[in-house]
Amino acid sequence: MYECIIVGAGIAGLQAAIQLGRYMHNVLVIDSHNGRSNLCRGYHNILGWPNGVSGQTLRELGQKQAKSLGIEFINDLVIEAEKHDKEILLRTKQGTEYKTKTLLISTGIKDRIPTIKDIEPCLGISIYVCPDCDGYEVRDKHVLLLGSGSTGANLALTLTYWTNRITFINHDSKELELDIKDKLKQNNITIINEQIEAVIAENESSFKGVKLNNGQTVSGDRGFIGFGGNLVHSELAKQLGVELLENKHVLVDPRTKETNITNVWAAGDVVAHSEQVTIAMADGCQAAIWIHKRLLKGT
Predict the structure, then answer these.
(1) Which residues form the FAD/NAD(P)-binding domain (predicted)?
(2) Distance from C-alpha of 258 to C-alpha of 183, rounded to nearest angstrom
């Protein structure tokens, strides 16, 4: 019986683990190593990292710090969750069962990125996902918006705050509504309806453009991704009866990060927020503080 189990060792889960470790609680972190932060090669808007830091670096440092505080880590995937009075039972893909008094769900989301050759090494370095994180990195540059339909089009419009040189490559050739087409035209955003075959880059920091399935190449200085259809990993929350939004993000108490199910918390991108690393850290820390308070009461 653990005092707390954290499902997901991304930024929120690791920050919570560190905080709970400093409270000297008996904590297990279960992670399948398939989180969003594994893909990002560089976050540039985090205090203390002016030259950027990769998700992998943050995860490695966070896990090392948590382990030094006695936190246990298991590489597995939780597939079932049940709540019985004051006990929560978790079952994993490997067939193991774990029991805990409290649970933190920090399972995050996963971006939908179609199979495009050579795209992964550039993510977070010369191809970006989040305009709030990295819009600054494309200021006054020619941006290729690699996306789909209205999601890609609206992201292209968002980026006009930083640059007026944008080409939207509508990978799935999804039809756009007339008002969106008009806005793109008003902002001199070129639309290309063609699938992307490969990214053209000399190295991860030297994005040059893309090659399309029809053989055409399109040059650009930086890339941005906006395909839509991101997967929210809230399946465990749903099994436990946690209240979800229509977009499947988890609803939590703004102050405590506890869900509507007693002793079940959620933090990070699985929660409805602006999907920032720094906010995920804050979510994890805040959840841990209130988990500690609950454990002091004997749950």
Answers:
(1) 3-284
(2) 41
